Amino acid sequence: MTFTRWEGRSVIVTGGTRGIGHGIAELFARQGAAVLLTGRDGEVARTVAGALARTTGGRVSGIGVDLKDPEAIEELAAEAVRLHGGIDVLCANAGIFPEKPLREMTAADVDEVLDVNLRGCILTVRACLPALERARHGRIVLTSSITGPTTGYPGWSHYGASKAGQLGFLRTAAVELAPHGITVNAVLPGNVRTEGLAGLGEEYLRSMAASIPLRRLGETVDIAHAVLFLASDEAAFITGQTLTVDGGQTLPESLDALGSPSP
Q1: Which residues pair with 186 in a beta bridge?
Q2: What is the pTM of this model?
Q3: Catalytic residue of the set 6, 28, 97, 159
Q4: Sign of the alpha-carbon torsion through 154, 156, 162, 163
Q5: Residue ranges of the domains in the chain?
Q6: For residue range 111-131, what is the model confidence (pLDDT) as tens digits?
Q7: Under a CB-based contact definition with an 8 Å cutoff, are residues 249 and 192 in contact?
């Protein structure tokens, strides 16, 4: 069996300056791909890219992109082509998750989350299509979530709607793009240890881990490996699908189903 050789392949990772996106960018860079990562702050994106290039020995660049700006998204696709000669993989990972109870939510709150998480995702895919078509093995991997498609959590109704919306988008996009050899899939992470969880305290993190059958939080590399697979040649016959990466978090009927941890 042969496995995908990533050398010479061009990968975009939106939201790649931290968290899951950073883990995805790092793994692709370690595999030899040429990576262009994005962040809202261009200086931060370039700094993170430089650090990744040094630690991985890979080819990593960074660019600032406001996913609410269609012109900036078009510039992102053009920059990837300019730097790397094309686009083989788009990891549409960028997303925001401000907490806001439904009773307090304003129209502006809803617009902000949907504009970045859903509209921005769709427009990024559209902007990259010409280059993905030329690649003849284009891969699109969306970072959705268990929140929205599978579960709910107070304060994140707008976030959940955006993540569920991504899955509605991917199924039709997968049908439309299949004749061009482009696959469209999504990963649905559960609770993953990122910078966003750091301030919650160790006791809270332990309680989160206790609700997961594998008895630990996910790591960014766990999600990155799932993305790498869906972007690989080995996944060429998989499209329009979702892969939940949650340590079994969504399986138990209740916490009682988990019982006591095995010694």
Answers
A1: 142, 242
A2: 0.95
A3: 159
A4: negative
A5: 10-247
A6: 999 999 999 999 999 999 999
A7: no
